[in-house]
Structures are given as structure tokens and as C-alpha cells.
Predict the structure of DUF5313 domain-containing protein.
Amino acid sequence: MERPGVLRWFGYAVGVRLPERYNEWVLHDATSKHWRARYVLQRSVGIAPLCLVWLLVPVSIGLRLSLVLMAALVAYFYSCAYMDESVEHRLGRQGFPRHTGRQVRARAAAVKNAEATARYIARYRTGG
């Protein structure tokens, strides 16, 4: 799996489509165990410059910090509220069919649940 370099990753984090050779990495990014944390980190790349702008407003430091806090909270709230849709849109932009991310994550969850169920049955239902 080929990973993008730092500059390409920053572009990807703000919404730039990566070349096809990175498709496997993009799918992994959208469906891995920690896909939500990756998503929030990528959104931080877009939110941080906006917060820096609020820090430059010529008012008291208390007001600037409260503006930064409110801006960050609102930005993260809306980013996270539409996380699934945003990730699916990003996969679609890379050329994947609709709902690819959801399907891959659902299959992984089914495998994990099946393993947990098998362990439960082996432990608590044997000999009965």
C-alpha cells in the first residue's frame, strides 16, 4: 500500500483528490480501526488556520481565546456530525462505489462480532 507524502497528505486532509495509486491507502484511511481519529486529525488541518485567524483579531486575549474555543467547538461539532457522509463522499471522489466505506466497516464489525460470539459460546455454553 503506497502512502502519500506529507504535502499530498495535507492536500488530502483539506479535500484534494489523490492519484489512483493511493486508492488502497484512501480505503484503508476510511475503514481502518481508527478511522474516526484519522478523520478528526484531518479536519484539524482545516480548523487550525481558522483558529489562528481568530487569535489575530485586535481585541483582549480573553475574547480571542473564547472566539477560538467557540470556533473550534462549532467546527468540530459539524465535522463530526457529518463524519460518515464526508468519508463516503471522499471515497466516491476517489472513484469507489457508493457506501463502500460503510460496507467494508460493516464486514469488519461482523467478523469481530462473530469472533466475540464464538469466544462467549466456548466459555459459557460448553458442556450444557
Observations:
- The mean pLDDT is 93.
- The chain has one domain: 6-124.
